[in-house]
């Protein structure tokens, strides 16, 4: 499977950690009949409640001292929390647009978070009404790996829903990386 186009959000700024989102077009459709491939929902109206347990999964580092990512996909569930609490953890860098980011983790005790190499991995929550998993975020940044006093910050994909749909419909020229 090869990436044939890559679309970056038009106002992406990695220095400010905002609008850090992209859409890939693959040369081969994903076979959703395979056991290991299932679609995840994108629902712009899905509401993340305070302390809702959501999950992230990826092949990144398993601790700050690791030199390579995990050979197995790792997953961790953690609660989400409000922008004001997250702002207190990252006063110098968090949120030029509070509606574009989600915080998740256990800053009081640490131990649950994404880590280096997980950037771009999903944050997804169970919609208890429908029983479906909903993609709500993409790993953006944090401080170390699961450190107490910090949390993971995720780009909120719900904010980008119209742009994602337009990229899926328009398979034209990709962005320049």
* Helix amount: under 10%
Binned strand content: 25-35%
The count of β-strands is: 8
Secondary-structure-derived class: mainly beta
| Biggest β-sheet description | 6 strands, antiparallel, barrel
Principal-axes geometry comes out as globular
Secondary structure tally, helices: 2
Radius of gyration: 16 Å
Distance between the termini: 20 Å
The succession of helices and strands, N to C, reads EEEEHEEEEH
- On the 0-100 scale, what is the average pLDDT? 82
Unreliable stretches (pLDDT < 50, length at least 5) are none
Oligomer: single chain
The side-by-side strand order for the widest beta sheet comes to 3-4-5-8-7-6
Family: Belongs to the peptidase S1 family. CLIP subfamily.
Keywords: Disulfide bond
Organism: Elysia crispata (lettuce slug)
Protein name: Peptidase S1 domain-containing protein
Name a few traits of the molecule.
177 residues; mainly beta; two-stranded antiparallel sheet; 28% strand
Account of the 3D structure:
The protein is mainly β and 177 residues long. It contains two helices and eight strands. The protein has helices spanning 83-89, 161-169, and strands at 3-8, 22-26, 53-58, 74-81, 101-104, 122-127, 132-141, 152-156. The strands form two sheets. The chain has a six-stranded antiparallel β-barrel. It is globular. The chain starts with a strand and ends in an 8-residue tail after the last helix. Keywords: Disulfide bond. InterPro entries: Peptidase_S1_PA, Peptidase_S1_PA_chymotrypsin, Trypsin_dom, TRYPSIN_SER. Belongs to the peptidase S1 family. CLIP subfamily.
